[in-house]
Amino acid sequence: MGNCIRHQSSTSEVDGSSSPTNHKTTTTEVKIKITKKQLEELLVKMDMKELRVEQVLDHLMEIAHNSEYNSLHQPWKPALQSIPEVN
After folding, report:
1. Which candidate, 81, 71, 84, 52, places its Cα nearest to that of 2?
2. CA distance readout (Å), 45 to 13, 21, 24, 30, 66
3. Where is region (Disordered) located (predicted)?
4. Residues 6+ apart with CB under 8 A from 45
5. For residue 55, which of 5, 28, 35, 51 is within the disulfide window of CB 3.0 to 4.6 Å?
6. Which of 1, 15, 18 minimizes the C-alpha distance to 67?
7. Nearest to residue 57, comparing CAs of 78, 84, 28, 83?
8. How many angstroms separate the CA atoms of 31 and 61, rounded?
9. Coil, strand, or helix at residue 60?
């Protein structure tokens, strides 16, 4: 699963003042790439466990973070098998 996360901060005006100390909200934009089959499985799990969307997104982001961490910290292994020499 390839996931992209982008954090944005925005300020809202109160009484005509645009000071960032009045009200500051943080939004998170998440782009999730999954197959249709994975989406169907995810929706079934949501219905069975009665999970909220926020809980599911938190779970997906945790999985993505762990897989990125593991892939970065594993030693490189060659994908090809050795070819025996013929005498």
Report:
1. 71
2. 40, 41, 34, 20, 20
3. 1-28
4. 51, 56
5. 51
6. 1
7. 28
8. 10
9. helix
d(CA 19, CA 13): 7
pTM exceeds 0.85 for this model:
no
What single-letter DSSP state applies at residue 15?
A: T
Q: 75: which 2 tokens?
A: 């030693």
Q: Name which of 46, 42, 10 is nearest 25 in CA terms.
A: 10
pLDDT averaged over consecutive 10-residue blocks of the chain (87 residues)? 52 49 74 83 82 81 71 72 82
Cβ(69)–Cβ(11) under 8 Å?
no
Residue-level pLDDT at 83: 82
Contact, 6 vs 29, CB < 8 A?
yes
Contact 1, 34 (CB under 8 A): yes
